[in-house]
Recover the amino acids of this structure.
């Protein structure tokens, strides 16, 4: 189970990094600090413009919660509650963002499907975290 917790910790850490990177780039754009946007990210600008600050704040909190969950997974502590709080907040903000017209125009239909894969992966991770914590 210790190896599984390390693998789960690494996956949660990777997702926290992705959330932090995307939220950070969005915030830097809004603050005018992102002077050069890489070509592959140019299409994100309309979505960044449409994303409200309160959503970025929640995204930052989600990133922090994911980092705490990863730390607890690595150190043998209980991580399920913190991870589930992060998942619920992340899915809620995704649901709001998914309703924005800019979100629908920035991504292709195939790319929009990835969101469901990510949510499904987080549910699987929550189940696996629960399994590793059952005996604690």
């Amino acid at each position: 189970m210790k190896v599984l917790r390390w693998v789960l910790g690494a996956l949660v850490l990777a997702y926290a990094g992705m959330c932090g990177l995307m939220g950070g780039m969005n915030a830097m754009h809004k603050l005018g600090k992102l002077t050069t946007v890489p070509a592959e990210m140019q299409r994100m600008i309309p979505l960044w413009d449409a994303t409200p600050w309160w959503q970025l704040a929640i995204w930052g909190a989600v990133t922090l919660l994911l980092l705490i969950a990863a730390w607890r997974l690595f150190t043998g502590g209980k991580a399920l509650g913190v991870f589930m709080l992060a998942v619920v907040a992340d899915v809620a903000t995704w649901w709001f963002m998914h309703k924005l017209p800019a979100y629908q125009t920035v991504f292709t239909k195939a790319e929009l499907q990835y969101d469901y894969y990510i949510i499904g992966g987080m549910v699987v991770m929550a189940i696996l975290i629960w399994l590793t914590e059952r005996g604690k």
